[in-house]
Amino acid sequence: AFVRYNRSQETDLIIANNDGSNEKKLVTRKFSDLWIENNPAWSPDGKVIVLGVEIRGHAKEPYGLAQVSVEGGDFRVVTSKGWGAIDQIAWLGDGSGLVMSAADQSTGWFYQIWFVRYPGGQARKVTNDPNNYMGTSLSRDAKVLLTLQSDWLSNIWVAPDGDSSRAKPITTGRYD
Predict the structure, then answer these.
(1) How many other CB atoms sit within 10 Å of the CB of residue 163?
(2) 57: alpha, beta or left, given left = phi > 0 and alpha = psi -120 to 50?
(3) Cα(67)–Cα(175) distance, integer angstroms
(4) Which of 41, 53, 59, 109 is the most buried (most CB within 10 A)?
């Protein structure tokens, strides 16, 4: 499954065989109505794809989760919870929920790990700390979650007369 952005101001959710053959467009949405994000995740039974979407008109936290039926392309929103950004999504092996990294106002716009019950859509934060977690992946038995913890460092240096060999740091610290 992948998302294709086309020149007619639309996004398409497409499925294809592993070798790229047999492309099938499941759903198309105009940019002005709904922006489909590039993070589709197949359900364990292969019947549903969940992906992040930007719902136009929601100002601060416009990103949500939507599902698309592989048979027929039926499209519906999974949860009423909104986020400022959604990264990679992974299904639990039994199909009872999803984990993902996402950022919202409650996290200070840092990406945290979230759990979303499926099909109910109830969302809760799994992590709640000053770290950024990018991407999520689960082992087949869902006992191991893999994510990348990222940190932004900031430094300001002064180079007298533009001479980098004499540069000295005047600050050091984290992004926050």
Answers:
(1) 8
(2) left
(3) 35
(4) 53
Spatial neighbors of 102 by CB under 8 A, at least 6 apart, are: 63, 83, 84, 85, 86, 87, 111, 112, 114
What's at 5, amino acid-wise? Y
Tokens found for residue 138: 């689960």
Non-local CB neighbours of 16 within 8 Å, separated by 6+ positions? 2, 22, 23, 24
Position 175 confidence tier, pLDDT thresholds 50, 70, 90: low
Residue 67 tokens read as: 């599902």
Its pTM surpasses 0.85? no
Q: Which two tokens stand for residue 62?
A: 């416009």
Residue 7 scores a pLDDT above 90:
no
